[in-house]
Amino acid sequence: MLTIFGSFVLFLRGMVTRTERFSVLWARTIDEAILIGVDSVVIVSIVSAFIGAVTCVQIAYNLTNPLIPQSTIGYMVREMTILELAPTITSIVLAGKVGSSIAGGLGTMRITEQISALEVMGINSTSYLVLPRILAALVMFPMLVILAMLLSILGGYLAGTLTGVMTAQDYIEGIRTDFIPYNIVFALIKAVVFAFLVSGISSFKGYFTTGGALEVGAASTGAVTNSIIAILIADFALAALLL
Amino acid sequence: MIEVSNIEKAFNGTPVLKGISCVFETGKCNLLLGGSGTGKSVLLQCIVGLMKPDLGSITFDGTVYTNSKIDIRQEIRRKIGMLFQGSALFDSMTVAQNVEFPLQMLTPEMSPEERRERVEFCLKRVGLENAGNKMPAEISGGMKKRVGIARAIAPQCTYLFCDEPNSGLDPATSIKIDELIHEITHEYGITTVIVTHDMNSVIEIGEHIIFLHQGKKLWDGTKDEILNATVPELRDFIFSSSLVRAAKRVDEETEGGISAFAEESESGGGI
Lengths: 243, 271
Prior knowledge:
The complex is a heterodimer.
Chain A: H1 2-16, H2 22-36, H3 41-62, H4 71-111, H5 114-120, H6 125-162, H7 168-175, H8 181-207, H9 213-242
Chain B: E1 2-11, E2 14-24, E3 29-33, H1 40-48, E4 55-60, E5 63-64, H2 70-77, E6 80-83, H3 95-106, H4 112-125, H5 141-153, E7 159-163, H6 171-188, E8 191-196, H7 199-205, E9 208-213, E10 216-221, H8 223-226, H9 232-238, H10 242-254, H11 257-266
Parallel strand pairs in B: 3-8, 3-9, 6-7, 7-8
Antiparallel strand pairs in B: 1-2, 1-4, 4-5, 9-10
Helix pairs in contact in B: 3-4, 3-5, 4-5, 5-6, 6-7, 10-11
């Protein structure tokens, strides 16, 4: 375990020493931002809208006490979404989509000698291939989390009003009650940490793939499972430290 | 000229290279010959810097490569072109973009127009002037090898390394690839090192041959000397090929060595 962690640290160090020219890194980061961010908008939108909707309906189902105002449903949807569901579930979804893509892509490049070709040309392959992926993830994950927050709350609104469990006025009153801006900051800190974990772990697993197609598949699976475990551990650690 | 001195390499305690010393001459096709698992590819990877030898030194035209500073290693690496066994083309780029890639990365001072002209020249040189817009998945194995050669020579390399350039190719295409490597080596006066176990290549382009067996260098010489070599392992290796047995027959009949056989084959005499 310690050996793997040490290798991971050395891998990250190799990425930031002898970096490629800024113009090259910039172009590569934009390309990766499109792959990681823009191409994930649809799946993140669908997942977050439905999570907001389901959260709203289930809270309404459990909230049977007539002394508790209906606006509490909107309040709880907002708190759950911002604090936990948007950053964590979005990152887990992205670990599946982006993590497997990063590990599979780098693994394939490794076994087809494309990474060796870069090294022979005198190009720092970790700087060229991995750094842009991590930078792009650090920028795009928080943006996707903000989108997920908005769509979850919107999903809750549509589910609550269309199913008739509450009025639009109650929901809006609920989501405006006792708002704490720091929760948004906390969620974005979580998004940045999760972005680093997903992109870093997936890159590490893919970059050091050896063997053939079977091992590329194993690297992708390993990247997703390890990323999800790392997200859950970091989620707990951040909650304990920052809340 | 590349000088390899006393290179040793082991994996998990199992020695793969056992004190190999040899010289790869400038302006010649230097062949690293040997059976599977004799350490040819490991030696090649040590020379190009993809692997670090446990012991020994490698010198490129007088500049020590092993254990030197990263700047020196980078400087040498930028003079290296390499054709990989599987071509190693970047599959997200077109053929032209693959050839342009090392120019973009290594020669930022070149203008886009100069790069485009160089790419056109290199593709024309390998006979692929009309394939620039194709993706690697859309071209044949032989064409991929040609693109690999074009990419290797694009930044005007001083050293060209080819890891089994004929693997997976039919005999006719193999000969064309061999001829292309041979022509380019002489045209640009570069030092070419080819890893192969293909006796066709030995007959076609083996100007300087180094024979490896079980991690040791057992013999070196030219293609004309190889038929008369007395090393038993080398004789076992080369005479396992029916092609070489035929060459030996021609050699005995004509006393012209293996070159006479190659000439006879080209003139239609064949086996």
